Amino acid sequence: MPILEKETARDRDSQVLPKVPVPPLKQTLDTYLKCVQYLVKEEQFKKTKAIVEKFGAPGGVGEVLQKKLLERRDKTTNWVYDYWLEEMYLNNRLALPVNSSPVMVFPKQTFRDHKDALRFAARLIRGVLEYKGLIDERALPVEFARGQLAGTPLCMEQYYRLFTSYRYPGIKTDTLKVQTNAASSAPEHIIVACKNQVRTPASGETFHTQSQF
């Protein structure tokens, strides 16, 4: 496959990407004020600016928190990851499809008969499993940034959570469950849902494993 001729994430396992930087405190506060000034009236903006200046004063709360962020950056691979995951995704109470989770809609298909539809589904599943094989082998081509940072290699770790993670629902916040050990040598389940009905094996019936497809 041509895709495997490109440099892969496996080839870069020994290379460490630069850590996500922590912007200087003044830069963060200036950016915040620039955004706020278009959202509030002038009098309210003056009050907000005074609060921000106090927050960012030498020896103030801002410097203390900035120091903690710098310490967090030094101790973690990505200091912003947990904040981003929780606030942008797990705490989000909106419907998952479109708002935060990707979905795919296929063009309408015309099948000759029931078996033709099953063959289509089988080919789709096989393609997904082949892609998962690339993920398991860390053989996906490394992606690179565009624009001002063009050519900079990007972290590929998000791909390796595909097919191995589950979002456990909660009332106020969800929990991300990720399989981090090789508990199973192959994926065990594919969920088939149709008209709000989930396919389950009939009495005495067994599902095929990945190697049997």
From TrEMBL:
Pathway per the UniProt entry: Lipid metabolism; fatty acid beta-oxidation
SUPFAM superfamilies, per database record: CoA-dependent acyltransferases
Ranges of residues in domain Choline/carnitine acyltransferase: 20-198
One annotated GO molecular function: choline O-acetyltransferase activity
Catalytic activity: 4,8-dimethylnonanoyl-CoA + (R)-carnitine = O-4,8-dimethylnonanoyl-(R)-carnitine + CoA; choline + acetyl-CoA = acetylcholine + CoA
Keyword hit for Lipid biosynthesis: no
InterPro entries according to UniProt: Carn_acyl_trans (IPR000542), Carn_acyl_trans_N (IPR042572), Cho/carn_acyl_trans (IPR039551), Cho/carn_acyl_trans_2 (IPR042231)
Domain of life of the organism encoding this protein: Eukaryota
Keyword vocabulary terms for this entry: Acyltransferase, Transferase
A Gene Ontology cellular-component term: synapse
A GO BP entry: neuromuscular synaptic transmission
Entry keyword Lipid metabolism: no
Function of the molecule: Catalyzes the reversible synthesis of acetylcholine (ACh) from acetyl CoA and choline at cholinergic synapses.
Protein name stated in the entry: Choline O-acetyltransferase-like protein
